[in-house]
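Give me structure tokens for this 252-residue protein.
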Amino acid sequence: MRKPIIAGNWKMFKLVGDSVAMITALKPLVANASQVEIVIAPPYPSIKTVADRAEGSNIQFAAQDISTEIKHGAHTGEVCGDMLKDVGCTHVIIGHSERRSMYGDTSQVVNRKMRAALNFGLAPIVCVGETLEERDAGREQDVVGNQLDESLSGLTREEMLRSIVAYEPVWAIGTGRTATPAQAQEMHRFIRQWLSARFDNQIADATRILYGGSVKPDNVSDLMSEPDIDGALVGGASLEAESFAKLVNYNR
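Here you go.
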């Protein structure tokens, strides 16, 4: 049985004070949400403060990125995995489409970051997804399959069991346009079939696959009703305590 994950990616929003106010408001709203895992990815400067404020709660924390490096050194601007663990992270988002398109994170770089995260015992949430042009050309499965091939290259069964996949159609991120539940399910099923072929049925059945792309309180239940959708990676709707709590409590 795959326990759903509702993950909130705050991206480059919220100063430390805003982050504290958000987590303070959110804690009581999700305190009884034992049916899902809750993960929040604040900006780097806020992680330690909000993780301390959430201590003892059911909220876990992720970083929005990680260095490819596993040893401390002269890597200006980078953050090593043990530094992320030190401030309270248990997860890390890797290969988000904004990182891929704006900052040059190729799937080969994503693979190195996956290995770095796993090296430090962090659970990677690896993102894959196609652009509108690629979908309109009927290439969405080829694109996502290639991203999976390269991003997860060389991972062992044990490492894959510690990893999470997030399908985020680039055309649905921050646009208000959401993949229909049927479209999302089709790709999630394809990803699970890829995992079965690359690893085995046990890995495919155990791996949680999240959907990301304009998930909101009014569409989350329909998305989550699909058999291969195991949660959501949420952007804008995770920035307010009440809207994010509604996502976490989607089935209550």
